[in-house]
Amino acid sequence: MPDTIKSIAIIGATSAIAEHCARLWVKDSAVNLVLVGRNLAKTEKVAADLRVRSPQSTIRSLAGDFVDPLAIRQLVANITSEGSPDIVLIAHGSLPDQIQCQQDLSANHEALAINGVSPVLFAEAFISPMQQANHGTLAIIGSVAGDRGRKSNYVYGAAKGLVTRYAQGLQHRLAKTQVKVVLVKPGPTDTPMTAQLKQQGGKLANVEDVAQAIVKGIGQGKPVVYTPAKWALIMMAIRHLPRMLFNKLDI
Amino acid sequence: MAAISSWGRLGRWEHEVQALTGQEHIIRQLKNGRPGIAHGMGRSYGDVCLNPNGILWDTTKLDHFIRFDENTGRLHCEAGVLLRDIQRLFIPRGWILPVTPGTQLITVGGAIANDVHGKNHHVSGSFGDHIRQLTLIRSDSPPISCGPGLEPDWFAATVGGFGLTGIITEAEIQLRRVPGPWLATETLPYNSLAEFFSLADASETGWEHTVSWLDCLHSKSVRGLFMRGNPTPLALSHRPSSRKLAMPFVPPVSLVNPLSLPVLNTGYFHLKKRDSGQRFVHYEAFFYPLDNLLDWNRMYGPKGFFQYQSVVPRPVGFDAVQAMLKEIAKSGEGSFLAVLKTFGDRKPVGMMSFPQPGVTLALDFPNQGQRTHKLFGKLDAIVREAGGRIYLAKDARMPRDLFIAGYPRLSEFLQYRDPGMSSALSRRLIGE
User: Complex ipTM, two decimals?
Assistant: First the structure.
């Protein structure tokens, strides 16, 4: 048992996966939680829910710009001003329409920025105070889509690939410290973000199970968490498939 | 499009499923034109939650708590919150849902729209009795807030209104104080219908929860087990196992069939009879015995099953129940999960609420096509004659005249209907 209350910051707190992680964190003990979203009303709704679940926790919600580097720096400085958090979860993202991104470069740019550049800037901004404190776990949500580019979603995949490389770099940089970096790669999960996939008949993982695996992985400081776990095997096969075969797949 | 079935698994139909995420989003969705119906966990048995080839509004993402007052026990939440999540969060804090049905894997919105009841109807009424306020989003007007003391007509139409008055998005529920998660229970075997009624009457005072399981195949006489319980402050340390069993596949034929049923029922009777007497039982095991057997509805095989739940007024209750049991025994179609319970003498909250003073009998039948429908025809005649009604949350087949006879406030109710709401059940029984 920790003798002090754990402090946790969640970026993209209105994402369904992040929200379910937060529900698990407040379930067993009081925590000091900062929720950050792009829309204050939506973030406040998540905060209100968590306050009912855990009246003994301190829960603060903030809204901020997720694209502008200066705004990100300032937001993180605000959060870390009273100390570097024990856990940081960077969870935001939005599933773009691949075809639209091929035709409209602004949509493409926006998808790359919000799913790739924005999360790594948040990670970079948080990691300095964490390194200074020589303490804490930073988790960042990538995706199985980042493991190999595929025609059906390589814009999203490329952004998540950036997240993957960045997390690897941070892990390498912090290997000799007490700071842990956890890269989470969820498979397709049943959240509002994937409503379209579900409509097309896709089989999606339960968001509560995914959150459970993430919270556990963060607790253990695992470098990479595939969730559901079967995706580690599936993606290993996909990564190693010879190009001749891979190019024949309609995925 | 996605293939969706209800709990009875009588078929799978293509639906356009739209997940609802917040008030503005819902208002936008409803303006988009085509009619649909709100769909939570899909735990109703028949077609009340279905709209084949049309829109289903998935409410399960509306799962936020909004406010809770520790002093008064008033909980404000979104309508997609599961009863399970309320129970697990608040029972350790000394508050419990005053009414829950036999599964906790349903949404608050579904519980209101079907005005569900539990084992304590004689003490606490139905789910709607404990709703202080709700928010209704309609396709043809601004959102409506209603409750027993605010727009009471809208409230009476919406409680038990099977989703036809709009989409219920939020509710304020009055929870009740509870000393802990355990119940002091007693199980008593009975060997005749008269014995059941005298046990039920004797338990009306002094017992908060009463229910009974019935072996309706036993041809010589009726036999069953009467269960009753009260919350207890006793703090037992061991928690029941949270291990869940699942029915992993759909067997090619129903596992409940004329060959297996006598064995199942006799086995169950003797197994439970052994446990008769007084015991302490955890609330999850007492209230929701089947929730730990995931996908139990699959045991009825690929053709699915019907549940037939009726309520008949008390003065004719004995004769009507006896007549129904006789028909069932004669037909040889039997039911494994037969539940018999008396309802208290209370006025229902909703215009279309199912509970009414009397006795309710719930039966599960594997779908055997014509044979099953023939039996239902005979049961319908008994219910009609007794002045009873069939529970819409369970129904997939009742004839329209029985619906009209059983629900005398129908025309009053229809004034509150939202033209943007339509389900397979509404088209079957109301015509649109």
Answer: 0.91
